[in-house]
Amino acid sequence: MGRPARGRPWPSWLLPAGLLLVLVFLTVNVLAHGPLVSLDRQIRQTVQGWAHAAGWRWLADSPHAPAQLITWLGSPLAVGVLAGLAAALSIRRHTLRPLLIAATGVALLLVTVIPAKIIIARPGPGSTALPSGSWGYFPSGHTSTACVCYSIAVLLLIAGRPARVRRAALAGLAAVWLLVGVALIWCDYHWASDVLAGWELSALIVWLALRVPPPGRLRWPTRRA
């Protein structure tokens, strides 16, 4: 008997199309003050009730508390980590592709997150209006920065590694995504939908950045044998 016929693979455009669709839905919901805005308020009320309870206050009650430190994973430090790793991999592998992928990811972050924050101008939790000269809170910049930079760094690092190493690395990466998002909500820095939009945008940016074509003849100079 022959092998059972396999189903057709999913079209490559299906994932980015789905991510973009969810991101558009979240954006329209915020602009139109849709039902998720009320859900954001309910989530904030519940989470802040836990965060200010006596048994859980230690998680975010000082600049060095665990939740506060986790939010720093989304600072510009993440860009520095990605840049340093990409440069090291480019030198080691004698190709500019890691640097091109990293640069593409950071460039896409800059041209999407900052304009979206300014145009949408969403006030943060507990506020009804943005202070003059401030950026908005949608999507979450800390979420997007952490998820994009650490994801690209890890995916570049584990390329070609054994399957068990890749699975462990991806599990750790998923934990970073979750912890950063939850910490930002716990510390009352962002609405839940800000974080969700940051996750969607991050996945889309990582998908696009990893499809940077090889640099062709443009390679890191090496000495002939």
Tell me the radius of gyration: 20 Å
Oligomer: single chain
Hey, roughly how much beta strand do the residues contain? under 5%
- Summarize the amount of helix as a percent range: 55-70%
**Major sheet description:** none
Mean pLDDT: 90
Total beta strands: 0
Distance between the termini: 52 Å
How would you spell out the order of helices and strands?
Answer: HHHHHHHH
Derived structural class: mainly alpha
Helical segment tally? 8
Principal-axes shape call: globular
Which residues sit in consecutive blocks of at least 5 with pLDDT less than 50? none
Q: Can you tell me about this structure?
A:
The protein has 225 residues and is mainly α. The protein has a domain at 68-209. The chain is built from 8 helices and no strands. The radius of gyration is 20 Å and the shape is globular. The termini are far apart. The model has no long low-confidence stretch (mean pLDDT 90).
